[in-house]
Amino acid sequence: MNPIDPQSLVELKNVTFGYGDRVILRELSLRVPRGKVTALMGVSGGGKTTVLRLIGGQVRAQQGEVLFDGQPVSRLDQGGLYAMRRRMGMLFQFGALFTDMSVFDNVAFPLRELTGLREDLIRDIVLMKLDAVGLRGARDLRPSEVSGGMARRIALARAIALDPDLVMYDEPFAGLDPISLGTAAQLIRRLNDNLGITSIVVSHDVNETFAIADHVVVLANGRLAAQGTPEALHASSDPLIHQFVHALPEGPVPFHYPSVPAAEDYAGRSA
């Protein structure tokens, strides 16, 4: 057993992972501070969602180690892995609600599957979780009857149903209108503080994410490109970080996909 780090709930130590010959993460090391909102950012394909899958044990590092509260995830047996996952909540990119269940039953699902609580206690917990996201009044609706922003909040209520220590958000702002986006961002911040949990937010939305994050980690080419406070990264002179934070079309991440010179290409095409 590794010693428990009182400052970090999650730690990756020199983690390498890939699919076949395609390496996604290369000797990545990072820490997720307890009780804080950590933003995991970077260009598309940089390995952000893969980090969440490694933490949850859906995939296992080929080299290095992933620790959750001092426990090496890859060494857990099935029982240990399930016990660890009960301490985690996951908000999938588009909610992943069960379409044939009511809002109430969606939130009640993990409580019914993973606890032996009486139905009257489950009802109270579900109503409290829905109230925390402002949707207690929508409990009898179906997912098809609510907006995209509401669906994301219902999924968040389900993610916190078991009072997890860690909640992971995979692109929680994708496809939301400005009002829903702002509501979701502030909800993440408020729940993190009020429930005393740790949050990891995978996002491309720099402004909203920087506004709620305590700590930002930027990945590029499967490696750690930078980390620090939102203020420090916003002021960074590193070309890649500057391009990413300020949404510039030109920089280390090129606009054009690598190709032969245009004159050669056109000449070859016309031949």
Provide a compact summary of the structure.
By secondary structure, the chain is of the alpha/beta class. The protein is built from ten helices and ten strands.
Word description of this protein:
With 271 residues, the protein is an alpha/beta fold. It has a domain at 8-87 and 164-270: P-loop containing nucleotide triphosphate hydrolases (Rossmann fold), CATH 3.40.50. The chain has helices at 48-56, 78-85, 103-114, 119-132, 148-159, 178-195, 206-212, 230-234, 239-245, 262-270; strands spanning 8-19, 22-33, 37-42, 63-68, 71-72, 88-91, 166-170, 198-202, 215-220, 223-228. The strands form two sheets. A six-stranded mixed beta sheet has the order 6-7-8-3-9-10, sandwiched between helices. Helix 3 (103-114) runs parallel beside helix 5, helix 4 (119-132) packs across helix 5 (148-159) and helix 6 runs parallel beside helix 7 (206-212). The protein is globular, with a radius of gyration of 21 Å.
Strand content: 15-25%
The helix/strand series, from N terminus to C terminus, equals EEEHEEHEHHHEHEHEEHHH
Strand order of the largest sheet: 6-7-8-3-9-10
Question: For the residues shown, what is the average pLDDT?
Answer: 87
Tell me the radius of gyration: 21 Å
- Stretches where pLDDT is under 50 for at least 5 consecutive residues are none
Q: What's the CATH superfamily of the domain at 8-87 and 164-270, by name?
A: P-loop containing nucleotide triphosphate hydrolases
Q: Structural class given helices, strands, pairing?
A: alpha/beta
CATH architecture group name of the domain at 8-87 and 164-270: 3-Layer(aba) Sandwich
Number of strands: 10
Shape: globular
The helix content, as a percent range, equals 25-40%
The number of distinct helices, counting runs of at least 4 residues, comes to 10
Oligomer state of the chains in this structure: single chain
